[in-house]
Amino acid sequence: MDMRRAAEEADVIMQRTLSGVKPELRWNHGPSNDKICTDVKNDSSGTGSVKRRIAIMTIVSKERRGNLLGVVERDWTARGYRITSVRASGEVPAIFAATPDDFRMRVAVGGGGQFFFSITTPCFAESAVPDPATEPNTPQRAGDYPQPPDVHDDFWSSKAPLSTSSSSAS
User: Fold this and answer.
1) Domain-located, residue 164
2) Of 33, 52, 108, 124, which one is least surrounded by beta carbons within 10 A?
3) Which domain holds residue 25?
4) Could you give the number of structural domains in the chain?
5) What is the structure's pLDDT at 169?
6) Cα dist. 149→45, 73, 100 in Å?
7) Considering the domain boundaries, does residue 151 fall inside one?
8) pLDDT digit string (tens) for 103-119?
């Protein structure tokens, strides 16, 4: 596998993650970057790694953040991904995971409650890396990244606590 193929696989993993969330989240690509991997002497090893990011543009209320994190964690576990760490924070929680091929994933709540997904590939043979081919499901916003979430959703934006009998987020 080379960096191009790894980036394509990262995009597939990211889209599978998003498709596991119901109701659907609105999102945009964040900046993608790649870097050269080095050996012990800090010399180029002829390999590189790719990072992909997605910013969630759906407003997720404080009352629903834990629900969304739980949906993602259950989805990743069901796909055979290993949860490597959990940042239990009232304001900026995050879940970190790895695929069996060691693609490293993160879902995190940033400032203002905005959700971000990212995935970093292991080091693979150097190659050109295209931009993500997947089309975001919301228009690109003008201005610096990240743009604040601005899409209201009756479920995810609701300030009502989720009742234990509700199954919309499962």
Assistant:
1) no
2) 33
3) 3-125
4) 1
5) 52
6) 39, 22, 32
7) no
8) 999 999 998 889 999 99
Burial class (CB in 10 A: 0-12, 13-18, 19+), 158: middle
Q: Is residue 139 part of a domain?
A: no
Residue 157 covered by a domain: no
pTM as predicted: 0.90
Backbone angles phi, psi at 18, to 5 degrees: -65, -35
